Amino acid sequence: MQFNHDELMLMMLYNTGTRQGLVRELRLVQCYLMPDETALRELSEQVIEKLKRLTDAEFAGLEFPMN
């Protein structure tokens, strides 16, 4: 599964250490988004959908950007 830079950055910001935990955090973040924050809502939904298709082992092997 390929994640682009923006997706990886979002994942890094809300990563709890587990795939399921990250999905929960992203869903929680969506609850606080304002109606005009459509780009962030779409990005978070895109990441959630990709995370659903990953296994836990694949998630554990992901490398997040450092800068």
Structure description:
By secondary structure, this protein is mainly alpha-helical. It has one domain (5-61). 67% of the residues lie in helices and 0% in strands. It contains four helices and no strands. The two termini are 21 Å apart. The relative contact order is 0.22.
Tell me the fraction of residues in β-strands, as a range. under 5%
Mean pLDDT: 94
The radius of gyration is 11 Å
Low-confidence stretches: none
* Order of helical and strand elements: HHHH
Set out the fold topology:
Blueprint lengths: L4 H10 L4 H14 L5 H16 L2 H5 L7
Q: Could you provide a short overview of the structure?
A:
The chain is mostly helical and 67 residues long.
Protein traits:
about 70 residues; globular
